[in-house]
């Protein structure tokens, strides 16, 4: 197998793995929706938590914080998943080398799958022969 065909095969496999990790990230990013639902419950029915208490429970404030923080985490996770999907698409088309390198570096933050994907992506993408394929 020649170096060019090996590089092409590595890019094809990395593209597939980007799709898989992007899907897993999108799935795991949905977990904070539980906090959003709890916050909505606190906002919609704050009196349910104040029965028989001398000092009222700040249900609306806490509910608002749950909704906002949970929503931000969900949206950030979905954004990261979309960026990884896009990088996988670019890898399969051999386009936008710099974007793929940046996303590979950022995906190292998402332990354990993103870290493995990012490290292997960086190893492949920083080869001079692979960089020539993106020209």
Describe the SSE topology.
Elements: H1 3-28, H2 33-44, H3 59-93, H4 97-107, H5 113-125, H6 128-133
Helix pairs in contact: 1-3, 1-5, 2-3, 3-4, 4-5
Query: Sheet bearing the most strands, described?
Result: none
Counting DSSP E segments of at least 2 residues, the number of strands comes to 0
**What does the overall shape look like?**
rod-shaped
Overall structural class, as computed from helix and strand content, comes to mainly alpha
Structure, explained:
The protein is mainly alpha-helical and about 140 residues long. It has one domain (about 5-50, about 55-135). Helices cover about 75% and strands about 0% of the residues. The chain contains six helices and no strands. It has helices at about 5-30, 35-45, 60-95, 95-105, 115-125, 130-135. Helix 1 packs antiparallel against helix 3 (about 60-95) and helix 3 (about 60-95) packs across helix 4. The chain is rod-shaped. The two termini are about 20 Å apart. About 20% of the residues are buried. The mean pLDDT is about 95.
Annotation keywords:
rod-shaped; 135 residues; mainly alpha; single chain
